Amino acid sequence: MKGVFFVAKGVVHEHDQNLNVREIIQEKKKTKSFNNYTEKFIPKILFGIAAISVFTTIGIVLTLLTETIAFFKDVPFIDFFTGTKLKPLGENAVFGVLPLLTGTLISTAIAMLVAIPVGLMTAVFLSEYASEKTRRLLKPILEILAGIPTIVYGFFAFTFVTPLLRSFIPGLEPTNILSPGIVMGIMIIPMVASLSEDAMSSVPNSMREGALALGATKLEVTWKVVIPAAISGIIASFVLGISRAIGETMIVTIASGSSKNFTFDVTQSMQTMTAYIVEVTGGEAAAGTTLYYSLYAVAMTLFVFTLIMNMVAQYISRKFREEY
Amino acid sequence: MKYVDSTQVQKKMGSRLMANNLAKTLFFLSTLFGLLVLVVLIYRVLKDGLPWIDIDFLMNRLSTDPERAGIWGAITGTLWLMVVVAPVTMLLGIGTAIYLEEYATKGRISSFIKTNISNLAGVPSVVFGILGLTVFARTLDLGSVVLAGGLTMALLVLPVVVVASQEAIRAVPQFLREASYGMGATKWQTIKNVVLPAALPGILTGVILALSRAIGETAPLVVIGIPALLIPIPDGIFDKFTILPVQIYYWTIDSALVAEYANLAAATIVILLLVLFVMNSIAILIRNKFQKRY
Known about the structure:
- The complex is a heterodimer.
- Chain A is built from 13 helices and two strands, in the order αααββαααααααααα.
- Chain A is an all-alpha fold.
- Residues 1-10 of chain A have low confidence and may be disordered.
- Chain A folds into two domains: 2-74, no CATH class; 86-319, Orthogonal Bundle (MetI-like fold), CATH 1.10.3720.
- Chain A is flat.
- The longest helix of chain A is centred in the first third of the chain and has 54 residues, at 21-74.
- Chain B folds into two domains: 6-52; 56-290, MetI-like (MetI-like fold).
- Chain B has eleven helices and no strands.
- Chain B has helices spanning 6-49, 55-59, 72-103, 108-121, 125-139, 146-170, 174-182, 187-216, 219-224, 244-254, 260-290.
- In chain B, 46% of the residues are buried.
- Chains A and B meet through helix 1, helix 2, helix 4, helix 5 and helix 6 of A and helix 1, helix 3, helix 4, helix 5 and helix 6 of B.
- Chain B: It is a multi-pass membrane protein.
- Chain B: One of its GO terms (cellular component) is plasma membrane.
- Chain B: This is Phosphate transport system permease protein PstA.
- Chain B: One of its GO terms (molecular function) is phosphate transmembrane transporter activity.
């Protein structure tokens, strides 16, 4: 609104100086060429700015790709993806990515075991059971939980959750995959909850009322009407949660240690792909070494994994969306 | 003939209602679980950290002696980082949003840019760290200085600003634009004088949320190479630096060696959460106070 008055004021101002209409037109003609100039170039500049986000993606893919290709000259592709041993330092360095892949997948699985049930039940409560007042009280708390930096969750996992778990799981090591997995799950709860709740809230009330009128209880309405109707959004939220867990770095770096164990025992220390990247760069790997290139091969694997997950989420929510 | 056998229904009704009530309690408890974690987390951090916070902690330089260590370097580092991130991400984010909403024709290019931005939002932050390390720190040979970290961070939070600005611009009603055109304004004049001022609260909210994300982000900067060593207080964007989350990281992993480092980490977390709380409150205030509904 202010802007409209701003333009108007300019015109009034010129009248104040007692210019006649012809002079105003002459005046306008002079500025017109400048205006034409800006009108022509502003869109081009803005397009250039918008293209930077595309260049960022291209930059990421190119840097990862070139160095990954260099890596596969040193280490055969098959050995990398089937190798169960990762020993990047020392004389006989071995580069097998499987220890990192299992670390990533196990921590992700633990996280989703926490995040999916709790997140979904939270979403159901907020969308179907809570009164407007309760919802307005609880939603900001979830938003706060979502806004806490991951480093704080890492500190929490390392100094609180691990000692707590060790008090009733005797075999648990000081750094292990279980504790960061659980904390990662807690971190993802708000994301699953709010995306699922959005999906459930967009199910029209008439469908609920139809089921209620047939004598269904609220639980039956939720289970047999609302969740099936919102299933695409709910599953998309799970997939996005998985992608988030795969890419999560600081929690696992702090609380899971750096042993490159190839194991399925959750009480052991394991390293994820993200934690490996932090460890290697933190050690200032010299450019040109196989160790340095391995960083990019691992990052590329990570990038491809999360990209596929995000695309699957987009595909699910686009393809299977029920429009009402 | 009756379609509903009322005795049958009566018999089942009790268990159905009970299931409903049980489920309701379960759903409520799982919602409270998040609240419980939040309370425990904040209690732990305050209990460990609060006694360590005083003016010396805020104003001292880093030190290996826990009693003398302070976070002044991390505070100035965080501020310098914002000096780079804020203008870069605002220019890129708002520019992209204006292009997509006002200029781009609904076609392949604009939908490509949009898909690209939503994919960029899903790229793990540690991968952005690799990009920053390779492009800014090594290829452009900036080293692990504020500028390299800031540019990386600006790209990382870019999708947040773009999406928020797009929504804000889209919410400006068409009749404002038409009124402006009607008075002879050109397209850019309309955008500059009408659309942007009306969309400003929404855009600012997005920018503040993006900056608070950048303040809390650790992984990209660790990857770019912020050392755990004592470094001088940064004086500009070409100096080496450290920031609050990175400081928390090093103190946390070293707390196995020196127990007091855990307290220092907790104290730094208190400061970090306080900063984020203030920033988010400002964002919410702007949203509630200045956002107009048309």
